[in-house]
Design brief:
The chain has helices at 43-51, 101-109, 128-139, 156-170, 191-214, 223-231; strands at 13-19, 32-37, 69-74, 78-82, 113-121, 144-149, 180-182. The chain is of the alpha/beta class. The protein has a 7-stranded mixed beta sheet, sandwiched between helices. Strand 3 (69-74) and strand 4 (78-82) form a beta hairpin. Bound molecules: guanosine-5'-triphosphate and magnesium ion.
Length: 240
């Protein structure tokens, strides 16, 4: 039997706050895992599926539903962050066709952001806007895995063909492709794998903070050094 995956048992899942911008987000004390993707791709539904709590994040068949940075704390130790989607222009707001300023600010600046789940609809051939967004993540060095959603609605062969096609478009941007997962919020497919990713990340963070505490160089009491360390995103030697 392998190591116990502590995240699979989510004993508490609490709504923290809805933040309109980065400055309104809570302190950076807990590691965060964020969901991003086109409006309606299933971000809020996947968050609920992973948390094991229907209705924790609000979902809707209407695209552009999540409009704020919604933050939830799991097991009092890490957070899931539901972000507004991109690709949906409501009324005359042309800017919302691209993901909004608050989201890009959060993704670029949030120092406790460990990993982004970049969601793609498994039923669609590669969409320009998703490719552009993945390129933006790469350019801004945001750590992410790809998650192809709604697999219950699509034949397995079509899911595989769409993933292969998406991968072919982006492969030149990486030395090593990011990990790719599939999921369905309806059937729960992909839940153990995605919680496993969070578990791996949490384990790496714990190991890193133990190492930092044990290192004489880091406990030198230098205020500047401590500040730099806090500002640095967790250095995960990522298996994905
Ligand atoms: P925005 O907040 O508008 O950006 O959307 P979102 O990405 O948060 O999508 P949301 O989770 O609200 O889901 C959009 C619609 O897709 C809802 O009607 C969900 O019930 C449906 N949906 C989400 N995930 C799945 C899935 O895995 N399978 C199926 N069949 N439907 C899904
Ligand atoms: Mg949503």
């Amino acid at each position: 039997m392998g190591r116990e995956v502590f995240t699979v048992n989510i004993s508490s899942a609490i709504f923290d706050c809805s933040a309109p911008d980065l400055d309104s987000c809570p302190d950076e004390s807990l590691p965060e895992f964020a969901f991003i993707g086109r409006s309606n791709v299933g971000k809020s539904s996947l968050l609920n599926m992973l948390a094991g709590r229907d209705g924790l994040a609000r979902t809707s068949p209407t695209p552009g539903f999540t409009k704020l940075i919604n933050i939830f704390t799991m097991n009092k130790t890490w957070r899931l962050v539901d972000l507004p989607g991109y690709g949906f222009a409501a009324g005359a707001k042309k800017d919302s066709a691209r993901f909004n300023h608050a989201v890009s600010h959060y993704l670029k600046e949030r120092t406790n952001l460990c990993l982004v789940f970049a969601l793609i609809d498994s039923g669609l051939e590669p969409q320009e806007i998703d490719l552009e967004f993945v390129e933006w993540l790469v350019r801004n060095a945001v750590p992410f895995v790809l998650v192809f959603t709604k697999t219950d609605k699509v034949a397995t062969a079509a899911v595989q063909a769409n993933i292969a096609s998406f991968t072919a478009h982006i492969t030149g941007w990486f030395e090593q492709l990011p990990a790719i997962f599939t999921c369905s919020a309806t059937t729960g497919q992909g839940r153990p794998e995605l919680l496993g990713v969070i578990d791996e990340a949490m384990t790496a963070i714990e190991a890193e903070s133990k190492q930092a505490a044990a290192s004489p160089e880091d406990s030198s009491g230098s205020g500047r050094k401590a500040r730099e360390n806090r500002k640095k995103r967790p250095d995960l030697s990522r298996p994905w």
